[in-house]
Amino acid sequence: MTATQNFNETLREQLVEIRELGLYRELRKIGSPQSVRIEFDGRSYLNFSSNDYLGLANDPVLKEASIAAIEKYGAGAGASRLICGSLGPHHELESALAEFKGTESALSFSSGYTTALGTLCALLKNEDVVVLDKRVHACLVDAAKLSGAKIRVFAHNDLDNLEEILKWADQRSKSTSTARRSRTLIVTETMFSMDGDRAPLRELVELKEKYGAWLMLDEAHATGIFGSRRTGLAEECGVSDRVEIQMGTLGKALGAAGGYICGSRSLIDALVNQARSFIFSTAPAPVIAAAARSAIQFVRSKEGEARCRKLWANVDQWLRTETGSLSSQANEKVRSDQKPSVIIPILIGDESKAVEAAGALRERGIFIPAIRYPTVGRGQARLRVTVTASHAVDDIATLREALGFVTNVKFGR
Ligand SMILES: *Cc1c(COP(=O)(O)O)cnc(C)c1O
Q1: Is 198 in contact with 155 (CB distance < 8 Å)?
Q2: Which of 251, 223, 314 is nearest to 51 (CA)?
């Protein structure tokens, strides 16, 4: 066997194992824009799986801003931000972000994933402690590992467990006498991506202040849809100005792509100087920055307010259905609160059963993928339904009916 044959044979064996566990994944080629209806394999499906909560990804407002930016700035940025790729649209996006979030400053990255990597690695060293909620997104886990800091994990939304860890970290930092005082950073999401529940933000902020720790909030699934200004859950809870690091993505409710950090001028300057995923990467295409900026302007407008109201009206409609209330009850196991959410997990448990249920829905013309390990824990497989502002009343009725027909889906009971 040649080395190349051996290489491919080894990978094939690896893939067989993945298949046997019901964890095999493959790409689907979608032949339409992101929307309530998507096309693949020659068929149109009613889509309940996108994070395009406000229906902005294919909105004329974003498309026009994008076309104008392409006309003026071309396609690619040509270099990293610190060389000669820091174009007008990047700066305009960052001013818009800071104004939107009410922070001194903001910085955009090419994705939420690289935002997390760059930020944690720029702020933490080996002697520091990073404290993660058990259910944070993979990018935050990877970032924590890469930073080299000591990782401590607290049970999901468990403030007592968090406090124990903070006490330990506080003692530890007092007892070590180094020139640089060791840092403790708590990292959590505001709206959890796979469970649709919320972090107890007010209590988190009080705790971190009690122990002199810092707090980083990932608002990936909250930006654009929570709070009276629609900036996120930190705003809704009235804690925005007590959070050191506000992170989010421009690729979900904002319909574009990229990630951001909002915070103090010193934070942003530190990242420009030390966030490696920002420094050593070509700047995002100017068109994408322009699209994201127009999305922020839209969200802030009266139309944005109306779009957001439509989203929550759709969520209400779902919750009023029998299936909706059933799924909320069944999901007590995964959700630590029962507040309305655009993310509706329908817990199935077994990986293969979840895949079967998703297949049965597809046969009925509805697209909701099975979410499995490692995105969620083993035996925690689920259908992750997301409701958007673009769904019509009838679409939600169709979903309800189809879920009822997928008889082996007993909502985890
Ligand atoms: C999607 C997501 C990210 C990553 O953002 P991208 O812009 O898609 O890279 C980060 N955190 C959470 C909680 C997410 O759901």
Answers
A1: no
A2: 251
Out of 90, 156, 221, 391, which one is annotated catalytic?
221
- Go through the chain and tell me how many residues it has: 413
Residue 59 and residue 255: Cα distance in Å, rounded? 9
Specify the 3-state DSSP secondary structure of 211.
coil
Distance CA 191, CA 321 (A): 23
Catalytic residue among 59, 128, 133, 218: 218
Q: Rounded to whole angstroms, what are the CA distances from 281 to 196, 267, 275?
A: 32, 20, 10
393-405 vs 351-363: helix crossing angle, rounded to 10:
130
Report the atom number in ligand 1 closest to the C-alpha of 116: 10
- Residue 111: closest CA among 270, 282, 245, 265: 282
Average pLDDT over residues 171-185: 86
Tell me which residue has tokens 């820091």. Answer: 86
Report percent pLDDT > 90 for the chain: 85
Instruction: Tell the residue nearest (CA) to atom 5 of ligand 1.
Output: 112
**To test ligand 1's pocket by mutation, which of 194, 217, 249 has the most ligand atoms within 8 angstroms of CB?**
249
CA distance 405 to 206: 46
Q: Which atom of ligand 1 is nearest to the CA of 250?
A: 7
Arithmetic mean of pLDDT, 140-146: 98
Pseudo-torsion of CA 291, 294, 299, 300, nearest 10°?
A: 150
Q: What is 174-203 written as a DSSP string? A: HH---SSPPPEEEEEESB-TTT--B--HHH
Query: pTM for this one?
Result: 0.95
The response to whether residue 220 sits with its C-beta less than 6 Å from ligand 1 reads yes
193 CA closest ligand 1 atom index: 15
133 assigned to active site: no
